Amino acid sequence: MNRTDRLYALVEELRACAPRRVSARELAARYEVSVRTIERDICALQQAGVPIFADVGRGGGYTLDKSRTLPPLNFTPAEAVAVAITLSRAGGSPYSRSARTALHKIVAAMSAADSASARELAERVRFMTPPDGADPAPTSVPAVLEEAMSARRVVRLRYVAADGAETERDVEPVAFTAVSLCWYLIGWCRLRDGARVFRIDRIRRAALLDEQAPERGFDEMTPPPTDYVVRPLELV
Asked: Is the pTM higher than 0.70?
């Protein structure tokens, strides 16, 4: 059994046994590899975002949270590649890190044969990019801003305006928006007591505060330019 097949089999084995814990020794015997190989495989799956938990000591082992995993999927190889292409364009977005782990989960949940076919098909997709510096990559959104948005927490920003003036301000996050390759944070600025739009690449530092941000609708924020149309992200 090659490593790709074994990783897939490990996920399905832990899913079938959950919530019972399975030791590395049991898994090593089942797949005829060393305990160290199983430990490396489990670590790779965890880094890919698979929710596998470990208990050490006598009676310990690995278990998988079935409520946070996908069953074997009926994605065709072409559908998996289409998802991969879409997620690959998420660089610089607020959820670029989550896009990578989502793709890992999708591939890990596919059958071994479909996963291999998808990888072979993906090898025949190529992106063309200009030389370094000709088209700078979008600035990644700091993870603390993602957390502030998800948890609806006030965030303290050190921000540099277009004229170079640097200020510190507490902001209630409301939404992320993008224009071309540039991402912005829309929020209620307590320093200015009003809605403001902050360019991500001008945020020098961001710190999550303990305070919960009050509910504010997008309609309370600064209206977009008249030549732009605001379109919400759809999950259908």
From this structure: no
